[in-house]
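[agent] plan:
  1. take the single chain provided in the ticket
  2. run structure prediction with default settings
  3. attach structure tokens to the ticket
  4. add a short note for the reviewer (M.T.)
[agent] executing step 1
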Amino acid sequence: MTKLNRWVYGIVGVIICLCVGLVYAWSVMANPIAAEFSDWTKAELSLTFTLTMMMFCVGGLIAGFLNKKIKARFFIWISAILMFMGFLISANITSIGMLYFGFGILGGLAAGFAYSAVMGTVCAWFPDKQGLISGILLMGFGISSFLVGKLYAAYTPDYIGGWRDSFKFIAILLLIVLAVCGIFIKKPDADFKAPGLANQKKNVREPAEEIGTATMLKRPPFWFYYIWAVLISAAGLIIVSQASGIASQVGPEVGVGTIATVVGLISIFNGIGRVLFGALFDKVGYKKTMILDMVIFIAAGIIVLLAMLSGAFALIVIGYIIAGIAYGGVTPTNSAIISDFFGRKNFAMNFPVINTNLLFASFGSTIAGKLFDASGSYFSTMILFIGLVIVSFVIFLFIRRPKTKEQ
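[agent] step 2 finished; step 3 output follows
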């Protein structure tokens, strides 16, 4: 297996990300659950997604901390078991607490374990394409909710409780696919050289510094970037978690299947955005990449607001496409920034630390749910969305790449 083309590991990594990334399909999955349990508020249901994102961060930290003691494939297998248990428990819920535990806690942990293991392992095969491979892997993670959302909406029975059979099927499918994929996950040997590079050191941009997590946490650039990531991720999660409701408000006469398709556009273009921004980071660096991303975020927010004011459903389609691209730019930037600013030797632990921004960003989903419960409209939610991006512009001004020893 050591002689496999490195892109094989990349493909397997994408498949794993497709599997665990379905936690992002919560916006679509929640609809039939809400129909069966109509006494649960929007805020209560939104808390499920918040818990998922929080446990995703916890899982990533655990996997990062133990990456030198436990092989990555074992985390994939643990993820397979947790995903199976999480969806099985969710399929049999009688209370919202069971949903929180099954989908939120177990599903979130599983996604965090697999995500961290894949990113820390597969990226090591591409020292010359850190932004690009991050974008490709994250494309799989992001586009998952579209694929799952479409299949879920198409094949879930219409009757109350029909979603439970879909959850059971998903549980079994994930167990099998992740278990098989885990076999192919491994790190390259210490003497691995990226193919096609006559002089790897000359062709691969060296990180600003090689430091461990404790030292990284003392660096101001880390914290300014961390705050930026919290703000911009919160904006993205607001759209992801409330997309179905926003679309339904603008087009109350639009069918469920069409809503699922339109919501899925966020995932498709989120995936495309991850590849584009990952490759862009490799070419132009962090400043231009981050500025472009924030500009696209603002454009998406304005278009969605116009859709609400005019009732033009076509604008929602355009807004979601642009929002997907914008949110797609965040995660590969996280990965590439950590690698470029603080090095690759401790990437497996440093990367999950930056991802803990989602612990705070995930509350954007819950706040958005509360705003809707209070006003009966998603207009205030989109004002919050734009406000977060504007503040992120200010924070961006303080982010500086650490100076290398040569500087």
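[agent] step 4 note for reviewer: The CA atoms of residues 278 and 333 lie 7 Å apart.
[agent] ticket updated
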